Amino acid sequence: MIAQVFILSSKGDRLVYKDFRGDIGSDAVGLFYDKVTALTGDQPPVVMTHRNVHFVHVWQGGLYLVATTIAADSSPFAIIDFLNRLAALIKDYCGALSEKTVQMNFALIYELLDEMLDYGYVQSTSCDVLKNFIQTEALSSRPFSLLDLANVGLFGADTQQSKVAPSSAATRPLQGGKSEIFVDVIERMSVVMSTSGVLMKAEVEGEVKVKCFLPSCSEIRIGLNEDLSVGGSHLAGYGAAVRVDECSFHPAVRLDDFEAHRILRISPGQGEQSVMQYRLADRLPLAPPFRLFPAIEKDAAGRLLMFFKLRCDLPPKSSAVNVSASIRVPNGCISLSQELSSPDQSAELQPQNRAVVWKVPRFPGGTQLSAVFKLDIPALSSASMMEVGPVCLTFELPKVTASGLHVRFLRLVPTQHRGPTQRWVRYVTHSDSYAIRI
Amino acid sequence: MPYLGSEDTVRDLRRALANPHVQSDQLRYRNVILKVIRLMSQGLDVSSLFSEMVKACATVDIVQKKLVYVFLCSYASLNPELSLLVINTLRKDCQDSNPMVRSLALRNMTNLRLPGLMEYVEQPLTAGLKDRAACVRRVAVLGWAKLHNLHPNSEIDAVVVNELYSLLRDTDPVVMVNCLRALEEILKEEGGVAINKPIAHHLLNRLKDCDVWGQSEVLKILQRYQPQSEDELFDILSMLDSSLVSPHPTVMASTLSLFLSLCWALPAVSLAALERVRVPLLAACGSASREIRFTVLCHIQLLLRSVPGLMGAHYKRFFCGYAEPAYIKQRKMQVLVELVNDDNVALLLDELKDYCTDVNTDTAQAAISAVGRIGRSYSDRCLGILIGLLGLKQENITSAVVQTMRDLVWVCPQCSETVCSALEGCEEILQDSQGKQALLWLLGTYGDRVSSAPYTLEVFIDKVRCETSSPVKMELLTATLRLFLCRPAETQDMLGRLLHYAIDEETDMCVRDQALLYYRLLQSGIDETRKVLQGRRSDPSLGVLIGLPAEPVKHWARVFNTLKPLWQSFSETESVRGRSCLLSFLLLIIVKFSVHVCVFQAAMQLVNIQILAFTPSHTLPWRVYLYTHTQAPPCTTLILGELLYTGKPTEEGVTLKQQPRDDKALRGFLSVLITVLHTLSSQRE
Predict the structure, then answer these.
(1) Are strands A14-19 and A4-9 parallel, antiparallel or unpaired?
(2) Which of A223, A281, B305, B676 could form a disulfide bond with A409, CB atoms 3.0-4.6 angstroms apart?
């Protein structure tokens, strides 16, 4: 059971505080923040204890969502899961989870908490149930922007020019708005690669998410690749069959047509839910998206020279965005001089992280970039070379899935619902951890 | 947060709330109330607005009602008299035609937490249990639990309890789960809700209707049920099988917990269940929420205690991500150490080596000590890595490496040769006291093999005046004396200087006492000194990493799925470190006293109890201080004890202190102690 729930900003401001059982004083908020600030490390541990009070927190969107309890035998999974769910619901209702949205919508959050928990026991967290009880309307904070007006034609008519899913759509409140449905295939890659390009570890965690803004929806059908095979036992043949090692589904998904036709049937509620989660390890269908060719040497003046060639092995039509390579450098770097192959790239030395961060805003598939970094290190020794590397890449691959999973079709079973429905299917692959050894 | 001018703000708000124009305009009224709540949640004291807010409660606007209730529930206990005014509105709302209003009123009526309101609340609660809307029944059921906790000493109303038991058959799953929760609280004294066979099977059948939270609650309460036959047990287990591999970690963990408690007598079945949860556990390890990932890691550590090979093939899942927080990285490394085997050791060490130079010093230190732990089984490879790290000449890395080497040598004496050859030059880099202590211990203990040892110690002795840490000075004393025993010619002069300084100039009593003790020890003869100071150099029995017998599941089944595994646990390396440091020091104190108690001491050491100090044997009352610790990581517990002997066997007393608490270990310790004392006293006679 949960005794209190509170939300703190990263500066320690109390945004929301609700006491459910009255057995812990309201000074718990201060205690928690004291504990957080007393720590030297970068992240406070998930569970902290003061006397008999246990603080469990999750850190999301720059906020601490904290639950306190006095029962040491409460399930940590349940409490953390609940806090994550709370964060997700705030995102659903208010559009985003940030200090600003929480401050604007605190009445709504109190209402949510009131319905979700009674006497510290979770009553319901399903968006469909809660929407019957929630009365307050969400206030969304969208700054005025000229770009928003670009889609509006003469006399405010919708020009229908852009057929790309509006990025703002994903961050707007549930209530009101157009009837739209989003199916997102989101994958996270974690890769460890040796200097020679051998994959030491390759793993993809994927998720099919449905975000539904329809007021009512009877059933949707999501068709996945027909050649998708689950588990390692299938012989894939010669074609580039799409394979996942393990997958699990939302309990509400009907899998009648999954075996034969790879179709998922679900009646989604409002809000966001994860329909399918899957995992793939070691044998990726495509080559890893990036390869690095490093050369490191000491020049006559005692500087460290690093030559990098970074190749993007995506198909030529797609490209990676927001690529950032963080190269760990030896202790005691004073200055950096760089030669980059194009002006839109940038590189800087971050002494506190002991890293050179090389940023590439856009990196088309099949191309290659090169960079030369010269580092001044007064105490350069031969052992310092050991400290160079690994290179960690973070990137986003829009419209690409590393596993090859695709949505063949997305069908809505027609309802009496009036008006057209926009359907969007989006793919993105993120880097969870992409490390290349040097 | 105290605001400047907060009184003005409150006064303005009061004026606005009382303004009839505001009251007639619903939207304005609501906005003022919103402002009040906002200030309240920021921590400002707005309790003085209570009476105005009570008036705002009587409205048809549900949003406003909800806001006012948030306020009232926070401040009701400060204004019990005024709260009586709300009750009428609330009771009226309880009869509203809208179920939402009814449930809202009932919930907040019970949330006021005013013991004096009991008489007004009972009637609506009784009616609420029979309400046709499920949302009202949910609230009413928990309302009884709240009421009971407000009057913990009052008699339990048997009618209510019966009613709650019958509501377990309610059509709404949340009502059912709430009944369980309410009964659990009301019947706390009697051990919680009684689970008999029909109830247990009813709950199991309804499990599928509940949501995740309900399921985990039901599963937890079912742990109390004991199936009557083996057939029934296996029926239950097969019903639960699908929950065991649930994609929700919450359900999976509570199901496993239930499995383990049901099968406590059937270890083979428990082990099969552990095998079965491997896949969902690994899936949860890759969860997008890092807090869940951390929780799973902590629980995997528990599982590995019983099934060390469970995750062996999946060791790559525990490689640290680049952007993960330090607390996850450290747990992952602890798991990686457990997973090491002949096939993966090369890859695994390669990965760990990468973490050793991490920017975060805690992570780097954890990685280095992880390499040291693996070194107990694969010493050559690991020593290669550690010595390579010394080449970096970085303060924190060198310190961690030297400490790791000391721990390694203590359990693997065969490494000492390599370690000794690597120590040269470290003293220039080490800055922190932990690292210096480790180096000094190594130099003292293996001084005969490190050719430069006297010179290194001399550097320390020359700078002893600037040294601030007394543990370092004490370690320096011990190390110098030990070195003197094996290389007297080179050390005699500096030992003299050090003793002179420590006895004449040192202000720290511990250091001075230790120096005095050494001085007297030297006076009593070199053989005597040697006997005391040349204790054990290593304890290989601690070093077995692979092939440890697996712990039975029941040792940790109780803490599974609780907050305990998530607390910072002391790793085994620390206990070893504590021990090796203490040992040289402890032995010294003992020597102060006569040889007569040698028998006693030897007997105690046979059973692994160390003696800290005792009074001379001819004085009465006679006291002994002793300590021991259990070595079952991660729940290592330290016991300190005082033995009192007054000459009459009946008045022997034992006082014990323990950290952390572990009753089983304490009982074991006592029985061992009593056996030894009996044996000794029979000898004495």
Answers:
(1) antiparallel
(2) A223
